[in-house]
From TrEMBL:
The gene is LOC103357593. Belongs to the glycosyltransferase 31 family. One of its GO terms (cellular component) is Golgi membrane. Its EC number is 2.4.1.-. It comes from Stegastes partitus. This is Hexosyltransferase. Pathway: Protein modification; protein glycosylation. The chain crosses the membrane at residues 12-33.
Length: 459
């Protein structure tokens, strides 16, 4: 009897073990696939209508939606796509498992960029494309490999202008793109929405009784004005300005439109090396108006859920533009010819003003080493986000294209927003004092919601 049961046990083990193994394998594969799918959100949906990148007046410039994005030949005639495909291919974990592991150490990525670039220079078709690019894109390409520029001026603290006795780490660091000559813009920001120190959040009915607030810090990001265009040397003045306010971060590159991407990349690097303990980073222009008290309350509300969901490392919020086609009008400053970039842009947050977590800033710093520079800064940030498989969140209170219609004239309109573009320094100062004066009268309003979105969900 004992022998009999023993034999059956052997048969049982022989037949069932492989079955069990297969079952477990299927189970595992299923779970992995489900997790993958959950991570990827559709970049284009019918609710996100087609959008053409800023500066275009007609809609005929829509790029066709690529039917199969993995087919190389679709991008063969576009300079940037070819360069980036080369990098992506050498980092593809399926094609080159060992290279990816080695590359993940960080600084090795920049080597890949250089390699793809020097290989491209040898290829005949890339040479031909390059010679047919418009001059301003050629100028960009000539410098697109270079990312190290010396720092000319930097704040003395670890993250920009600060308050005297800060009792907590800062909640937000305002990093503001500006130019040497825009002293007036900087001064208006220092006196209004960008004032460093403790800022109380906007009180709301619904939210908790206790007052929320946070410390704000500020740093201005600058390149250098071309001295030939300027005629005079104002670097001494800027040095004095930094001595007085301690909020200038300047690098030694020409402050041109195509070079704006360098401000993102170099800021991420500077930020990652500094030991700035801020929770959030704001990156925006010097001609926007920010409702800082609203922003503080909004970020506090977010912080609770973000930490609970462990999504703080992916957090970016702004005016999100989905599935935009590159601007193909050659008179625009956003003009990108088909021979430089083909296809649509990834989902990106308009560069007028965007807020992200400091964790994300550090991840962007690393990932940017495997993405070739692009002459439009906010699109470039979107490209890096795509590589991180992170997507910016849209909030209708970021008005990077100003108020729609007559909405600005409504009472309390500025109490319903987080940011509006664009406002000059005089207007900014006036708006800030209005905001203070109407505080009690407008304390019951809530942040604006998307009118368009509401209508779509009705039918
Ligand atoms: C501008 O002035 C600063 C000091 O005042 C000097 O170090 C710098 O070389 C000057 N730049 C040019 C282009 O002359
Ligand atoms: C970017 O800055 C570098 C360094 O100053 C300059 O040589 C280059 O021409 C600039 N690029 C563009 C596209 O203006
Ligand atoms: C985040 O967590 C909150 C509850 O803490 C939940 O209501 C919300 O749906 C979650 N969001 C995401 C994107 O998972
Ligand atoms: C806030 O409370 C007031 C009454 O105290 C009420 O009229 C108003 O609707 C509330 N607002 C919000 C946004 O809940
Ligand atoms: C949405 O609907 C409201 C009325 O319900 C209308 O006044 C408004 O113009 C609509 N907005 C759009 C963008 O269609």
């Amino acid at each position: 009897m004992a022998q009999f049961s023993c034999r059956w046990r052997n048969v049982f083990i022989c037949v069932c073990t492989p079955c069990l193994c297969m079952l477990l394998l299927f189970f595992y594969a299923g779970i992995v696939m489900c997790m993958r799918m959950k991570g990827v959100k559709a970049p284009w949906t019918p609710e996100n209508p087609q959008f053409v990148a800023p500066g275009i007046s007609e809609h005929k410039g829509f790029a066709p939606i690529p039917k199969a994005f993995w087919r190389n030949e679709l991008h063969q005639d576009a300079f940037w796509n070819q360069l980036q495909l080369d990098v992506d291919r050498s980092l593809n974990p399926i094609l080159r498992p060992s290279a990816t592991k080695r590359g993940l150490k960080g600084s090795k990525f920049s080597f890949l960029l250089r390699q793809s670039f020097s290989e491209a220079k040898k290829q005949e078709n890339m040479k031909k494309i390059f010679h047919n690019l418009p001059p301003h894109i050629q100028r960009f390409v000539n410098y697109m490999q270079r990312r190290t520029y010396p720092i000319v001026l930097q704040p003395d603290g670890e993250c920009g202008a600060q308050a005297k006795e800060e009792k907590q780490p800062p909640l937000i660091l305002f990093a503001i793109k500006t130019e040497e000559l825009n002293f007036k813009n900087r001064q208006a920001i220092r006196q209004t929405w960008g004032r460093a120190g403790w800022v109380a959040g906007q009180k709301r009915n619904g939210s908790a009784e206790e007052e929320v607030g946070g410390y704000v810090r500020r740093v201005f990001l600058l390149g250098k004005e071309n001295p030939d265009d300027l005629g005079v040397n104002i670097s001494e003045l800027l040095r004095m300005e930094n001595e007085h306010y301690g909020d200038i971060l300047q690098w030694d590159f020409d402050d041109t439109f195509s070079n704006l991407t360098l401000k993102d990349v170099l800021f991420w690097r500077w930020f990652s090396r500094s030991r700035c303990p801020t929770v959030f980073v704001f990156k925006g222009d010097d001609d926007v108006f920010v409702n800082t008290p609203n922003l503080i309350t909004y970020l506090w509300d977010q912080l609770v859920t973000l930490q609970a969901n462990k999504t703080l490392k992916d957090f970016m919020v702004g005016d999100v533009i989905a599935a935009a086609a590159p601007n193909r009008e050659d008179k625009s400053k956003y003009f990108i010819p088909e021979s430089f970039y083909s296809g649509r842009y990834p989902r990106y947050a308009g560069g007028g003003g965007v807020v992200y977590s400091s964790l994300l800033a550090k991840r962007l710093n690393l990932i940017s080493k495997r993405v070739h520079l692009y002459p439009i800064d906010d699109v470039y940030v979107g490209m890096c986000m795509l590589q991180l498989n992170a997507f910016p969140v849209h909030h209708p209170a970021f008005l990077t294209f100003d108020f729609p219609g007559e909405e600005e004239k409504q009472p309390c309109s500025y109490h319903k927003i987080l940011l509006v573009h664009k406002r000059n320094p005089e207007h900014t100062v006036r708006l800030w004092s209005d905001l203070k004066q109407t505080q009690t009268q407008c304390k019951d309003v809530s942040l604006r919601v998307d009118v368009k979105k509401k209508n779509i969900s009705k039918p």
